[in-house]
Amino acid sequence: MSPLKRRQFTQLAAASLTSTIVADLSSKVLAQKSEPSQEVIYGVNLLSASKEQNRENQTPSVEVSVADLATAKVLSKASVPVLSVDNLSSRPKTPRAFFLPDYDRITKLIVLADGTIVISTVSSTRNGYFNYLISIGGITSTVESITSAKFTAQTVLDFEKFNQTVDSLLSLPKNQVLSLIGTEGITPFAFRTLDLTTGKILSGDDLALPQLPPTHRFANLCQDPKGNIFATEIGSEGVPVLVSMNLQDKAIATGKVKIQRLTPLNFEGRPLVNDVKDLAFSSSGQLYALAADNRVKNNALFTVDVKTGKMGLVSELAVEKFAFSPKA
């Protein structure tokens, strides 16, 4: 082969190799873009009430869904039937002179460290409020096994007052949860620790939890990957404000955990008129909010900047409460 032809052959081979590498890289980039997000969302909705449901010892029926964060596409759904509680305990009935028709509401969805989903609900009857915890365990694969998971239920016991309700939850170590306890779902609110093994609210205060202002509404407990706890607070201004605390950060004077008011929540330059429906952190540390979106007359998912309170619309998400699946 002549020197000229040898140079031409070498140039063609190099060009072919370069094209192959570029094509291979391009296909990998396209594949990464087409793959579903690694972040998976659990959502929950109430189903229509059953006539056979006894709200004083049975949970409402709910639907749990699994959706992809990037697309909000629902990947799987499972209906949880009416469940009788495992820890049925006699409690005094307190008939109310004035009451609304019986109803149920979902107050929180959390995911424990072992992947168990816990949903808190409140049922209102003429005889008072009945608080339940629905546990969904045995989930080995987020999408495939949600329909074959094990469902159990328990009632929440040992409230200080008959009209108190569990209005938010946050997972803690040692099979316990931090709870926001309201009064018929409204003020005053208080922090309490709940034992998931027994369903009982603990009387002690080993965490040195702070006392909350009696006229302020608190809701939407969540925790970032660093252990900081967040919630929303609504005071006399009527605007939901993002608040934060760390169980290790306590005031010198009182010995109680300190709460910091961070920033009002806002969207498109205006403060929110109503509180968000829920808050949750993704595994990457991004805070998300579930809030009403009047443009589609449904709930939607928003990002939240913890420093400024600025919210950005992500997509429609037709659930009442949500949480992120733990990373595998």
From TrEMBL:
Listed SUPFAM superfamilies: NHL repeat
Top-level taxon: Bacteria
This protein's name: Uncharacterized protein
